[in-house]
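Workshop exercise sheet. Pairs work together: one partner reads the sequence aloud, the other fills in the structure field after running the prediction. Swap roles for the next sheet.
Pair: D.N. / O.F.
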Amino acid sequence: MIAATLYKNQGQNKKFFPILFAEENVKHIPLILTLTNHYLLDKDFSKLKGLLTRTPEASPDNFEQDRKSINFFNLPISSESFYYR
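Structure field:
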């Protein structure tokens, strides 16, 4: 699925971003995504928020407020529907 989407988009990845809970999970990133940026949820939260909401990085002063305000389950869904199991 990932390979087909990247092939269709001529290698441009705007859809798949590995998000990790711990640094040791880097080894579980699919090979095709190893050249993309990955994000550690706690360490890179402001970068991840900026990426997902298409806004600049959050400031460290309001980190906790920003973290609580984003609902990861209410992010925009791609127009391409797919089912993966």
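Discussion prompt: Residues 16-69 form one domain. What would you look at next?
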